[in-house]
Design goal:
Layout lengths: L5 E5 L4 E3 L5 E10 L14 E8 L6 E6 L7 E4 L2 E8 L7 E7 L2
């Protein structure tokens, strides 16, 4: 279970349970146009991942997050905010996320 205020890592097709007993699933990498390391690019680019949130009661919600500083890199899930902190490179990149309780 991922507690409020905790950072965690997920890979594509992985799911976690949040403190409110909802489920978060990292569906897939949608796109990655980030500039490769050690290459000088005109634009830094961004990456986007698809996620799915299933509250303890209610309908499943599909959404996506983009790498910071692009928007949206966070999403409110009822009384919690999910933030994409970073995303590894590759075809199945690990995502670093954080969940925080909001009032």
């Amino acid at each position: 279970m991922i507690e409020d205020g905790q950072s965690f890592s997920m890979g594509p097709a992985e799911s976690v349970t949040l403190a409110d007993h909802s489920q978060l699933r990292y569906v897939r990498l949608v796109a990655d146009s980030r500039c490769p390391p050690d290459v000088q690019c005109i634009r830094a680019g961004d990456a986007e991942i698809a996620l799915q949130w299933t509250p303890a009661t209610g309908a499943t919600q599909d959404f996506s997050l983009k790498t910071p500083p692009e928007q949206p890199h966070s999403r409110d899930l009822d009384r919690r905010r999910l933030t994409l902190l970073s995303l590894d490179r590759g075809d199945a990149p690990q995502a670093q996320l954080r969940i925080d309780r909001i009032n």
